[in-house]
User: Which sequence fits this backbone?
């Protein structure tokens, strides 16, 4: 491959996009500067387009093994490529759960057949049941860094405390899905006027906040490093900020695009595409989370990509499973909602959705810079994308963006010596 | 009004509500005739699909449909709480093949009738879903209140009891609000959520507000997975209509309503049933007329809006 | 639209109906039952004349919406009004009153409705306009005015109380 991306602007995590041409050959970025096309290189006109490192999504649910009719690892990674994402971390709530070196190996072997790197987290407790510790040292040996029972909190605080104490030795970190099991109720939607109107017991934000505070205290006391997944409420976000800034806790936070964009009132008349866990909260929470993202309270953006079949989502609201797909839509939707409106710039996206998640997973950060391995995407802010079922590569299409047209388009994805996508 | 389904009150506008209330009047007139039946729905099939046991609402719909000369089939569904989406969907496919014109649904899950309505061309009538809506109850309540207070605008209705779990509270408060009635809720703090309506957690305070009618709800212990108040006895003494409270209600000429079935000794004492301004049996009779008006007003087979 | 009857011709036709009914009643009690809508207004005007003549007469109104067999043709079902028959029809002599008789189907529905109120001893039919083209064997005993029409014509009746003006017109298709 010998590719010359001409006329674009290069985005980095530290500053606004700068005008530069990018020359890629043999899987390496040869030059990033305004220059003439090198001889023999294929020239692609990127005028008005943004060239930036591939995104990295540290929170995805691929349903393999066990529920491949929703998503396979291969489908999931193709959806990621479609959305400009060149690396993912799987969550362990598959069937069987990713709670042993055997299952880890099976998942990573499958991931190795895909066109982008697939990492996985693994369970804190056996089968995410919250009763006994998973084989943590064995998991570490199998390549695991992130321990989480995502999908549920660890209900037993004593067990989580012991797991944290035990794992320090192995230099792993914990990721928490926060939710008090007694306060959360049937886990269908936020508690408030909307849950009252729809007649479904709501899950109050405090169910998440109480557990978040508990887990951070445990991590702080045991010296563990903790990452709080999919924060949905303002007070939850402030809890992280306080512990980190006031007490020096080793805690980071994550926010999903949907918790920035949608609120419980969007559920309307039982639209299950807006049903996820943690649930959508209020418009005020949207605003606060966005502000927190700009202020750096959240280390990363991650989708919590959670595919479900059309039939599952066609059930009554309470019966329909929680979750929303996100890999196909995340980058375009963030552009459409926040970059076009001037809420933040590309530097924030590169930092929070490419650089920081890779640092968290102790990977080399992807950069569009001379001498770096090619791991980049070209994004056209002037084109539009319509998210039809056919367009999206995920096996499922449980997203509010289904059949919606948004501003922006992922045009090219390059990883190593391969062009993974070119529209 | 060309509407396929009757799922909730929220989506009705004031004009539609008034139309339905007006339509119920001639139906109620029929009850005084020797022949109480009209041929309006001759040859139509009404299927009763009750996933939750209910004698009163089921009978009321059955009588309403029969008085319109429809054929009524009560479809036997298991009342177990584990009826999942999959089996509901299979049932609807079966009913679709039976070419039912109207399906009357009661289900423990909020939103299930709406999900069914999307799957069938039959007219779906919500006979109560979870804590979401009970729109025909709301219609009969409004009809009953209008009979005693033809000028509804500005009247005050106090809805008392387990607001949190009550679909009746939701639908009836919504219809009354749309008709210009002021609504307030009263009950134990653990059972009265914050809503757009005035909220009382003290009986005396609520009565000072000056309601024209007190609407008592059944305290639904069976739906509460956790205790929301210490005991029925304590509930009765703090929020129930005791004989002493009835005396004051009677002095002020306040009407008493209840959707049934009642819990004697919990939300009310026996004497309430003999009170001359107790509208409970009137509500039952009006329920048939209101449900006839709904059945008559719907148009089965209209294009499904949501596919 | 061709005006077939002007206000004075309508008055004449109503008076003619009243005269016929008065004669037929022959001093016995008769119950006029007007069919909504406009049959009720015709019945009311006949009733006033009969009252003046000293006849023993009662007046009722019948809404037959629930007895029609043509709902399928409407996008939404008709708006109902109450029937107002305050007297027992059992054993009485009922004269059904309508504005126009055409196919006869309305009267069939009205008979069904009437018989659900009770069992009259005798039922007669009075119409302001007979425009012909019957589809079922129902004939009026009392007719205010017969009009020659084509099957596809529309006969448009306006009466003062219902419509704010008086006329009978024929609209040719």
Assistant:
């Amino acid at each position: 491959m010998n590719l010359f991306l001409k006329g674009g602007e290069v985005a980095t995590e530290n500053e606004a996009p700068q005008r530069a041409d990018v020359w890629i050959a043999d899987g390496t970025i040869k030059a990033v500067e305004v220059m003439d096309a090198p001889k023999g290189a294929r020239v692609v006109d990127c005028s008005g387009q943004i060239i930036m490192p591939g995104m990295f999504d540290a929170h995805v649910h691929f349903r393999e093994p066990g529920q491949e009719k929703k998503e396979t690892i291969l489908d999931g990674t193709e959806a990621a490529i479609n959305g400009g994402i060149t690396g993912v971390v799987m969550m362990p709530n598959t069937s069987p759960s990713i709670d042993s070196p055997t299952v880890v190996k099976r998942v990573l072997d499958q991931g190795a057949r895909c066109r982008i790197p697939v990492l996985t987290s693994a369970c804190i407790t056996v089968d995410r049941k919250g009763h006994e510790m998973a084989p943590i040292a064995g998991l570490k040996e199998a390549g695991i860094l992130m321990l989480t029972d995502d999908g549920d909190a660890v209900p037993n605080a004593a067990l989580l405390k012991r797991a944290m104490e035990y794992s320090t030795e192995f230099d792993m970190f914990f990721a928490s899905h926060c939710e008090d099991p007694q306060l959360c109720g049937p886990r269908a939607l936020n508690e408030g006027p909307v849950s009252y109107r729809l007649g479904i017991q709501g899950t109050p934000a405090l169910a998440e906040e109480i557990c978040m505070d508990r887990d951070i205290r445990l991590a702080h006391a045991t010296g563990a490093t903790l990452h709080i997944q999919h924060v949905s409420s303002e007070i939850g976000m402030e809890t992280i900020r306080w512990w980190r800034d006031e007490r020096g806790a080793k805690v980071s936070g994550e926010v999903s695009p949907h918790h920035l964009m949608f609120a419980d009132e969007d559920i309307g008349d039982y639209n299950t595409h807006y049903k996820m866990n943690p649930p959508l909260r209020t418009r005020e929470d949207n605003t606060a989370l966005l502000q927190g993202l700009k202020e750096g309270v959240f280390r990363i953006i991650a989708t919590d990509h959670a595919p479900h079949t059309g039939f599952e989502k066609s059930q009554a609201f309470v019966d329909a499973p929680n979750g929303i797909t996100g890999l196909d839509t995340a980058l375009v939707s963030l552009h459409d909602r926040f970059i076009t409106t001037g809420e933040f710039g590309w530097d924030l996206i590169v930092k929070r959705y490419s650089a920081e998640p890779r640092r968290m997973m102790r990977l080399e950060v992807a950069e569009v810079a001379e001498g770096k391995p090619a791991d980049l995407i070209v994004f056209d802010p002037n084109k539009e994308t319509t998210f039809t079922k056919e367009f999206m590569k995920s096996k499922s299409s449980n997203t509010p963006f289904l059949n919606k047209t948004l501003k922006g388009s992922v045009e090219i994805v390059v990883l190593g010596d391969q062009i993974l996508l070119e529209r | 009004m060309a509407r396929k389904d009757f799922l909730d009150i929220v989506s009705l506008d004031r004009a539609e509500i008034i139309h339905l209330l007006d339509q119920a009047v001639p139906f109620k007139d029929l009850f005084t005739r020797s022949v109480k039946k009209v041929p309006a729905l001759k040859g139509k099939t009404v299927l009763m699909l009750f996933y939750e046991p209910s004698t009163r609402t089921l009978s009321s719909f059955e009588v309403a449909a029969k008085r319109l000369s429809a054929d009524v089939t009560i479809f036997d569904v298991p009342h177990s709480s584990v009826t999942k989406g999959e089996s509901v969907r299979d049932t609807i496919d079966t009913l679709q093949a039976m070419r039912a014109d109207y399906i009357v649904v009661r289900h423990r899950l909020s939103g299930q009738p709406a999900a069914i309505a999307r799957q069938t061309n039959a007219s779906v009538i919500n006979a109560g879903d979870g804590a979401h809506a009970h729109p025909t109850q709301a219609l009969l309540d409004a009809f009953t209140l209008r009979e005693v207070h033809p000028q509804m605008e500005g009247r005050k209705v106090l809805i008392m009891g387990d607001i949190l779990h009550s679909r009746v509270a939701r639908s009836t408060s919504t219809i009354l609000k749309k008709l210009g009635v002021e609504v307030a809720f009263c009950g134990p703090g653990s059972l009265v959520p914050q809503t757009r309506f005035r909220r009382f957690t003290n009986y005396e305070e609520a009565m000072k507000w000056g309601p024209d009618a007190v609407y008592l709800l059944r305290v639904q212990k069976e739906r509460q997975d956790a205790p929301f108040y210490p005991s029925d006895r304590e509930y009765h003494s703090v929020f129930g209509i005791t004989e002493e409270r009835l005396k004051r209600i009677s002095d002020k000429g306040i009407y008493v309503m209840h959707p049934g079935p009642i819990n004697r000794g919990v939300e009310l004492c026996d004497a309430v049933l003999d009170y001359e301004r107790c509208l409970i049996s009137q509500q039952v009779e009006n329920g048939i007329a209101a449900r006839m008006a709904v059945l008559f007003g719907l148009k089965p087979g209209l294009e499904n809006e949501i596919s | 639209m061709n005006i077939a009857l002007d206000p004075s011709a309508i008055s004449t036709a109503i008076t003619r109906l009243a005269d016929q009914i008065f004669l037929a009643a022959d001093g016995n009690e008769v119950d006029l039952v007007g069919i909504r809508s406009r049959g009720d207004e015709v019945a009311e005007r006949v009733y006033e004349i009969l009252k003046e003549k000293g006849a023993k007469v009662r007046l009722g109104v019948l809404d037959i919406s629930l007895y029609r067999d043509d709902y399928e043709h409407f996008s939404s079902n008709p708006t109902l009004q109450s029937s107002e028959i305050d007297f027992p029809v059992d054993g009485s002599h009922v004269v059904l009153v309508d504005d126009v008789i055409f196919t006869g189907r309305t009267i069939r529905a009205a008979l069904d409705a009437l018989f659900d109120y009770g069992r009259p001893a005798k039922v007669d039919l009075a119409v302001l306009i007979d425009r012909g083209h019957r589809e079922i064997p129902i004939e009026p005993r009392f007719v205010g005015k017969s009009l020659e029409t084509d099957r596809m014509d529309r006969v448009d009746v306006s009466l003062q109380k219902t419509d704010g003006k008086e006329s009978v017109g024929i609209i040719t298709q």
Observations:
- Chains A and C do not touch (no CB pair under 8 Å).
- The first strand of chain A starts at residue 2 and ends at 6.
- Chain A has a mean pLDDT of 97.
- The domain at 2-51+370-422 of chain A is CATH 2.30.40.10 (Urease, subunit C; domain 1).
